[in-house]
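Reproducibility note. Readers wishing to regenerate the assembly model reported in the main text can use the exact inputs given here. Chain order matters: entities are listed in the order in which they were concatenated for prediction.
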Amino acid sequence: MKNNLKKKSLIILLLGLIVLYSVFPIVWTLITSFKPESDIVTNELQYIPENFTLANYSAIWTRSGYPRLIANSLQVTLITMVICMTLGTLAAYSLSRYQFKIRNQILLFYLVIRMFPVVLMIVPLWIMMRYFGLLNTHLGLAIAYTTFLLPLCVWMMKSFFDAIPPDLEDSARIDGCSRLTALFYVVLPLARGGLMATAIFIGIAAWNEYLFALMFTNSQESQTWPVGLALMVGEFQLPWGALSAGGIISIFPVILLFSLVQQTLVKGLTSGAVKG
Amino acid sequence: MYAKQLGELSETRSWAYILILPSIVLIFIVIIYPVFHGVSLSFQEMQLTKPHKSGFVGLKNYYKLFTDEVFLISLKNTGIWVTVVTILEFSLGLLSAVLLNRAGLFVKIAGVLILLPWILPSVVAANIWALMLDSRLGVLNDMLYQMGLIREYVAWFAEKETALISTMLIEVWKGFPFFSLLLLAGLQSIDDELYEAGRVDGASDMAMFWYITLPMLKPVIVATIVLRVISLVNSPDLILILTNGGPGYSTHVLSLYAFLKAYSEFNFGYSGTISVFMFLILIFFTILYVRMSRLNS
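Running the prediction on these inputs yields the following structure tokens for the assembly.
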């Protein structure tokens, strides 16, 4: 009994330490974002803000191009989600439901192309985008994002479709549905949890992306927030408070949406890797 | 009108291919073609700043690699960086997965909290740690100083010795949840009966971990490690934002070097050569992964 209690407290202690390592930096940024700059740049470090303020939030929002950057990111993210979810869902459905000759090869193909080096593709893509006039456009960036997100989408959606028994479609087809209408009226509604989780995961990845965005945009009109924020640090020596506030603003939707679909998402991400 | 025809089409044999076709076409345009183009660039002299010097140069760029000191430093750093980060992330991931593999509200909440750094943008992750590790205002210096572990504040990113270690610490912070997530799923798929049988035979917790958990987890362990190595070799984001490869070349890695050659110098040819070299390393790991996943299924 005593041994059990000892073991339990050891588990909680270790887990607590790991959680602290994971969460403290985020909490520290949140705390910093509520401090006036004079309390950040001080010799006596304040662990609890003595002069709570929202000035950093209004500063980053009104005195930099931040709203514009956020709007750009939103558009790129939405276009990426639409492209990936449309093409990815169709391909995933086919790979989940049909047995055909090169099915396994195609699945493997989707897996392998995710491992190609980004830096190898980024220059040819840049040349291609420049040729088609897609540099500095939302569409161009979204297309670049499909290089790593479309294969991921196919694999995740396939695992969600695999979990839905095909009997339901079969009976719908006996009742006069075609494959196509059965997909829309039977399968997709049943897979909506998985659809939502996959869409959010794709969205988060597009929202966060840095390298392509840095290479493919060079004006405030087209930049996304990660690039804008990183450049602000370099160019204007952005104060820590405003920088923290900017970070918090942009990760808030990420954390919120992730928490909403976390359980389904984890299932979709892990089922492929551990089917064993 | 068209809906009906589409419906009829969906009943034919070719429907399976028609559904896949659009995604395959897109992938050929944005991935396969650029990869071939990238390989061909590696045999060319191509600098946008010196347009008159463009053209095929055969293996010249490849010869240059092995006399290029920065490349050799980057290669060495990549090796160190990937090895150390993978070992640390795997250890911490396995530990947390074992701890999280039980019921309870606290455990459940901890499971979600641990994943947070993993979904954060690298830009914010970098900023967060740049503030925490700041030589003058950083909270880490303050805490270590108060605990008496350091005598004076350390300029983590300014010193060659600490810069690489600092970027590793941050990469581990952001990356270990990937292992927690997949190893936990692996642990949960192990049949409980194995442990019950072990208990009946009087095996200790340690023995059960060594003789049941680890062997059962082996396919997931190998798969996650290979996947992580690939993504670490591939992504220069954090280092790019944190140190830009400095001070000196102390945090230069191959992916960063290739990116900077293209982004800052517009030296597309040589950037391609470095990338192809990376590609060859990655192909080795990819084949390893594919072999493993074939064995699984």
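We highlight two features of this model. Chain B has a mean pLDDT of 89. The CA atoms of residues 12 and 209 of chain B lie 52 Å apart.
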